[in-house]
Design goal:
This protein folds into 2 domains: 132 residues, TolB, N-terminal domain (Rossmann fold, 3-Layer(aba) Sandwich), CATH 3.40.50; 254 residues, 6 Propeller (Neuraminidase). The protein has 3 helices and 31 strands. The strands form 7 sheets. Strands 1, 2, 3, 4, 5, 6 and 7 form a 7-stranded mixed β-sheet that branches. The longest helix is centred in the first third of the chain and has 18 residues.
């Protein structure tokens, strides 16, 4: 667990749009009795027989993506809607060959009127077919609900091997696992943007902080001060990182820039202060401190002042993460042999366990939609990254590993 580690020593898809401008106002829908929006997904057709397998795969990925949103209930075109209910929309698509790859033409229709909500053409190659499905899902999410989808996001995570714990990358749906480090001890991965990340590695014997660029596979050492060098969270608007450093003998929280230069020191306390996370507006920081002799969650302003304690219950509260929506802070609280996954409002008026089960949850991190959380859960003694829908309570195992970090929304592409 990240906190215990600290306390111990951190496509190209080309798109052309034919969306109707008058449908910028998002479709109003009636949710089904199960609380989700029914949407009919017709199997993608193909112009050629040898493209049928490709069409089936894209259709399958799209249906799964829509299920994972927790918002939509995808229904096959041959399926029947419950009596008295109607779907919000229906999807239709056709894939054809266009050198050097393929082209998929799709349209989303109002289910009742058959009026076109939006239509698009996607040019792609074979290695981008899953990205096309993810992109379509995110487009449907935006046009029907008015929110950005997470189907094109990725997660970093750590996995133990023989004498090492390396850093890996995976798509949000569990596909495309890629190993990023080779036989190192890596902790506390963190995203800066869609292609840059930070992590702490013991490859030189000290917990040093590195910045890596996925596009070129390059990394550079940005903080190698004696002791801990653990990046906590990144604030894009000001290009600032809040980081835990112990070069002066005690773990304190600092502002640093992306070169590792210290901008300011935020905490000055004999206790251990660590695990900082920015509020979305950059005005406050939630962090962990044992200044009351046990780890508890605190909030301070961006300058290190106006410190207030958030958690009142529990003898061991750690791993805070501020939701991108700003309304909740997730953390874990020890309850006997288990760690409960907690959600608290920044004012402390709401503070509840998300689940009352036998599982133990560690190191929660938010998806950029502020709805989904990835956490480490142990099954049979093995750690798994589990994705949790905080609104429905549904869980799905993603991959064996621990200490996940969820990427930001991908950059918007111009149509």
């Amino acid at each position: 667990m990240k906190q215990r580690m600290i306390l111990a020593a951190a496509l190209v898809v080309l798109v052309t749009s034919n969306a109707r401008s008058q449908l910028d106002v998002h479709l109003r829908t009636e949710r089904s009795r199960r609380g989700m929006i029914p949407i009919v997904i017709s199997a993608i057709g193909s112009e050629e027989r040898d493209l049928r397998s490709l069409a089936r795969e894209v259709t399958s990925v799209l249906r799964k993506d829509l299920e994972y949103t927790g918002v939509f209930e995808p229904i096959a075109a041959s399926g029947a809607l419950p009596r008295g209910e109607t779907a919000a929309a229906s999807f239709e698509g056709t894939v054809g060959r266009r050198e050097p790859g393929y082209v998929l033409e799709m349209k989303l229709l109002d289910y009742s009127s058959r009026e076109v909500i939006f239509s698009k053409r996607y040019s792609f190659r074979d290695n981008s077919k899953r990205i096309v499905a993810h992109t379509i899902c995110d487009e449907i999410m935006y046009f029907l609900v008015g929110e950005r989808g997470i189907a094109r996001t990725r997660l970093l995570f750590c996995r133990k091997g023989a004498g090492a714990k390396d850093l890996y990358l995976i798509d949000y749906d569990g596909h495309g696992v890629k190993r990023l480090t080779n036989e190192e001890l890596v902790v506390s991965p963190m995203w800066l943007d869609a292609e840059r990340l930070c992590f702490t590695s013991y490859r030189r014997g000290n917990p040093d902080c590195y910045l890596a660029d996925l596009r070129g596979g390059r990394r550079k050492l940005i903080s190698h001060r004696k002791g801990l060098n653990v990046a906590g969270d990144y604030l894009p608007g000001r290009d600032e990182i809040v980081m835990t450093l112990s070069h002066r003998g005690n773990s304190e929280i600092y502002h640093v820039d992306c070169s590792g230069t210290i901008l300011s020191r935020l905490t000055r306390n004999r206790a251990i202060d660590c695990s900082p996370s920015w509020s979305p507006n950059g005005r406050e920081i939630v962090f962990v401190s044992d200044r009351t002799r046990t780890p508890q969650i605190y909030i301070m302003d961006r300058f290190g002042g106006n410190v207030r304690r958030l958690t009142r219950d529990g003898s061991y509260n750690t791993s805070p993460a501020w939701s991108p929506r700003g309304d909740l802070i997730s953390y874990v609280s020890r309850d006997g042999p288990r760690y409960r996954l907690m959600l608290a409002s920044p004012d402390g008026l709401v503070d509840e366990a998300l689940f009352d089960d036998y599982l133990s949850y560690e190191d929660p991190c938010w998806a950029p939609d502020g709805r989904h959380i990835a956490a480490t859960v142990r099954y049979g003694g093995k750690p798994w990254i589990v994705v949790i829908d905080t609104e429905t309570g549904k869980k799905r195992r993603l991959v064996q590993g621990e200490t996940a970090a969820w990427s930001l929304f991908p950059s918007r592409r111009k149509n």
